[in-house]
Amino acid sequence: LTAAVETLDKLAPEDGEANRLHTERNILMQAERMSDSIAEASNALRGSSAENALTKAARAIERVRMTPGLADSEGQLPAIVAQTGDALERALIELSEAQSGIYELTHSVTQDTARLEQAEGRLFALRAQARKHGVQVEELPQRHARLAEELAGLNASSAELDRARERETAAAAR
Q: How far is the C-alpha of 23 from the C-alpha of 38, rounded, in Å?
């Protein structure tokens, strides 16, 4: 029991840790594929003339909006021109935000093989201890606490027994 508690003390399993490690492991294992997809998205936006096309369209619609007398005219045309101009402006902003997000992703997704090995090692150690104790990995922290409690109770009983023996020896010596 002491060895089991010491092993679990060293391992120090935490609630929800196995799920976090499993998720992290999956992400780290997919890092190369994710990096390739992010690079593809970056290249698509960098290589395209989307920003140039949106800018040209926005300028052209602005020229339409500036047509003398258009603002004072009746009908739907002024509203359609304004909505189109606003939509192009939003599209430029969204494109810029998408490019920023892709840039951020490029620098956030790393292929950290050392961290992958660390996460796998920890996850496998937790699974091994769970199998040894006949519980699910998620139940390991509770099992650890229960075993530590049992050991503390046995140690307390042992200490009480030692004190009783000392009293008995002292009484017999009198």
A: 20
pLDDT at 49: 84
Q: Does residue 28 carry a pLDDT above 70?
A: yes
Cα separation, 61 vs 55, in Å, equals 10
Q: Could you please report the per-residue DSSP string of 21-73? A: HHHHHHHHHTHHHHHHHHHHHHHHHHHS-HHHHHHHHHHHHHHHHTSTTTTT-
Instruction: Provide the pLDDT for residue 86.
Output: 97
SS3 8: helix
With CA atoms as reference, report the closest residue to 84 among 53, 58, 66: 58
| Maximum CA extent, the chain | 121
What pLDDT is recorded for position 90?
Answer: 97
Q: What is the mean pLDDT of residues 37-52?
A: 85
The two structure tokens encoding residue 157: 């009983």
CA 108, CA 43: separation in Å to the nearest integer? 17
Q: Please give the Cα distance from 69 to 171 (Å, whole number).
A: 117
**112 secondary structure, DSSP code:** -
Q: What residue type is 152 in one-letter code?
A: A
Neighbours of 38 (CB within 10 A): 19
DSSP class of residue 137 equals G
